[in-house]
Amino acid sequence: MKLSFFKVGLRVAIFQLGLLLCQNLTAAVTFTVTPNVVSNTYIGPITMLISNIPAGGTVVIQKFADLNSNGVIDAGDVLVQQFNLTDNQAGMVIGGVTNFFVPFDYNSTTGTITGILAFPAGDFSQKIIGQYLFKLSSSSGQLTNTFNVTNFPYAQKITGTVTNNGANVPDASVILFPASQGGDNGPGTPVAGTVANSSGVYNVQVPPGSYVPMAFKSNYVANYLASPVLTLTNGQTITTNLALTIATSRISGQIIDATNSNIGLPGVFMPAINNGLIAIGFTDTNGSFNIPVTSGQWQIGSSDEGLIVHGYVGYHDGTNVNASTTGIVGPFYKANALFYGTVKDGSGNPLQGIPIQAQDQPNNGDDGEFDTDGYEDANGNYVVAALGGVTGSGDPWVVSVDNQSEFPNYIFSQSALEQNGGTNLAAGQAVLQNFTVLVATNHITGNVQFNGTNVVGVQVDAYATVNDNSYQAQADTDANGNYSLNVANGNWNVEVYDCGCDDDDSLNNILGNGNYQDPDSQNVTINNTNATGVDFTIQSCGGVQITTTSPLPDGTNGVSYFLQLQASSCNNNFTWSLNDPSNFPPGLAFDPIGEIFNTPSASGTYNFSVHVTDGNGNSTNMTFSIYIAPAATPLQITTTSLPNGTNGTFYSQTLQASGGQTPYSWAIADYSALPSNLALATNGVLSGTLSDTADTYYFDVIVTDAAANSITNTLSLTVVNPPLPPLVITNTSLPNGNLGVPYSAQLGATGGQSPYYWDYALGSQNLSLIGLSLNSSGLISGTPTTNRVFSFKVQVTDSNVSDPPTNKVLSITVNSKPVLSSPAWLTNQFQMQLTGAANQGYTIQMSTNLGSTNWISLFITNNATTNSFMVIDPNATNKQRFYRTLIGP
């Protein structure tokens, strides 16, 4: 602060103007939330600006659902989110990648926090229509801001009243779930939600479709199986009342950090399910939960989406507990690894709001222990938390687009990790995996039957490779056994799902293990057309079916050949024979176990028929065709070069060979070595996540054909580092200065490679013209000597000499010294004119003793448009008085 003072006598004013420095005028903490009103379809940032906190201070942000909309946090309101923000504390960074879903301070200014909360960050409970309250708690006190989620104005509406035993239930939450498809045993991911008013009346506008609405409230449970299924058409309003059942018991416990039991996880959504009955709760600020239930056994588990803001990893399965169980402890692990990347269409345009899922995949075929969710932000970027070094080498992780059925007009690529069985994660590792999206406007349709009866609720899958990306479409059959798959142009392989497990929509679960024969897959080509009548007829175990298809793989004259014919039956004790041996290729042999082997002695195309009998006496015949090519050409490796790889990304290339006798087997010479983390599979796939020094690596590969011939070639792979983010100057404006008052401002930059070096850009004025200086660290300092608006151009250079510098034009406004006119005496008061700068704070103080430390404030102002003020001292009873002007804040 800057001071000026003067002395006044009773009749003659003796004016003295001086400059003093005054500090430590304490300002109150401020807290703003922007935007404070969003639609339930909004995807983007919620920015929280917190000012005037102690350097390095921490604030607690809590978000409550204001169910009664009274603007006050009271006993009926639910804590739905909580996190801490610490001044100048960086975000959660793993492997050089920031988990931007865990809020942190984006602002480098000490005493000011800019926290960005992603909305809704995959957590459906955050976008239920209604009023919320953001509460800030700090060492200086508490502040509360209102936040509202509005209903997107769809033309269709579902309305009604929430009741219990005929009485209206106020302030209940109403959630709309998608209608059940065949094979579903419970609700899917919610699609909309709202809060009923004080009379129990609710209204929610949604797109056309089929929905199951359910009501929830503390001390009540909902019944999914008894809830109505509503089909809403264009412009329609449906009125339906929703009934709640009073809870008779409770299940309670605490969600904690797995490595520190003193850390509870607050604001986490906790659902509980019991044969269609559903109850919900949230953890409180200590991570404790208390879920209302009825009698019986319930499965409880935290919502994976609710853990995103904490940076923790969820579990795949819930825990079964009986009603009235208390003291449950749920330990959750904080992520130490992550997946990241983008979701874009074929033109590179980002999508929004696509959920991403990561989970461990044990080799024993189980579902895995961990299951965690991520979310694509408005720029097409996603981050998914994971665990490295915890699940072991036999428990790899995969990442994929989750709930693809929610996006029927798109097909999402499958990650290379998913196709290759996953990747083992190390602590501190970040794995890049991008996804590509195709528009799926065509359809493959058909019917699935077993013994003349439609099969309901079985999953049908289609697989295709388009532009080197693998895609999967899937759907369950409806009540008539019909299915419809949304697909893009390409060659699709369609099959009925049979995992040999008890998944709800598998043949094994629907028809029973051992009661059927797996149907063959079918190939379908889509070229801006639909494919209809792709039907599947599943055979019972009353017969035998040859599953090997014709034609058989080609053979080569003079090269050993082997093939095992396959059949399906409930008794796999098969006996095979040739119906027409004279049509069989010369030189080949056929045995009773269905093997075709030996070395063919002539080339050409041969057609022959085989007969098979199973252990129950059932039999069938099938005609096959086989082509025997002329003698093979010499074995050679045709891959001569490999594309560059980038550190931190997954690399995959398939080596190619020709000649000799297929199949080929690949290996690395025992005296040679691949770059770190790469492996060469026997099928020629060279893959792995690169993590090595940027350089060119040479290695020898060996290919061996079926006749044990081998050849060796030297290949090279150049590993490069990923490009650095662009260098950007983050300052948008600089604070004003005051003439003769010390000034300090710090320039900031992001991207590139730190440290940064600052200087004037070519053609720029030097700050020395106004008494200031710029050092190489970006600090502007000094004492202004000229009052003016001074513009200049700065540039910043990072430590990567190959990057060009970035420049920006900035300006500093230097205010003139304030002028306090000589006082004019009126009866028992002085009047004086204060002239300064607009939008600058001034304080006029008075004392009867110049040496006193007790100055009395008469006038305080900070006006954005006015720079001149009349100051009056109404109580000038003392003949000698002193006045001074304070500048700031």
What's the topology here?
Layout lengths: L1 E7 L4 E2 L5 E2 L8 E5 L2 E3 L4 E8 L6 E8 L12 E9 L6 E2 L2 E2 L13 E8 L10 E9 L2 E10 L5 E9 L2 E2 L4 E6 L13 E4 L5 E6 L2 E8 L3 E4 L6 E3 L4 E3 L2 E2 L1 E2 L2 E9 L2 E5 L4 E6 L2 E6 L5 E6 L3 E4 L11 E2 L5 E4 L5 E7 L2 E9 L9 E6 L10 E6 L4 E6 L10 E5 L8 E5 L1 H4 L10 E3 L2 E5 L2 E9 L2 E2 L4 E8 L2 E8 L5 E6 L2 E7 L10 H5 L10 E5 L9 E3 L6 E2 L8 E2 L4 E4 L2 E2 L6 E4 L9 E3 L4 E4 L5 E10 L5 E11 L6 E2 L7 E2 L3 E5 L2 E2 L6 E4 L10 E2 L4 E5 L5 E10 L5 E11 L7 E2 L7 E2 L4 E4 L2 E2 L6 E4 L11 E3 L4 E4 L6 E9 L8 E10 L3 E2 L3 E3 ...
Parallel strand pairs: 5-13, 14-22, 14-23, 25-33, 34-40, 34-41, 42-49, 51-58, 60-67, 69-76
Antiparallel strand pairs: 1-2, 1-3, 1-83, 4-6, 6-11, 7-8, 7-12, 9-10, 12-13, 14-15, 14-18, 16-17, 16-19, 19-21, 20-24, 20-28, 25-26, 25-29, 27-28, 27-30, 30-32, 31-33, 34-37, 35-36, 35-38, 36-37, 39-41, 39-45, 42-43, 42-46, 44-45, 44-47, 47-48, 50-53, 52-56, 54-57, 55-56, 57-58, 59-62, 61-65, ...
Describe this structure in words.
The chain is globular, with a radius of gyration of 37 Å. Strand 75 (789-797) and strand 76 (806-815) form a beta hairpin. The relative contact order is 0.07. With 889 residues, it is an all-beta fold. It is 1% helix and 48% strand. Residues 1-26 have low confidence and may be disordered. It has two helices and 83 strands. Strands 34, 35, 36, 37, 38, 39, 40, 41, 44, 45, 47 and 48 form a twelve-stranded mixed beta sheet that branches. Strands 1, 2, 3, 80, 81 and 83 form a six-stranded antiparallel beta sheet that branches.
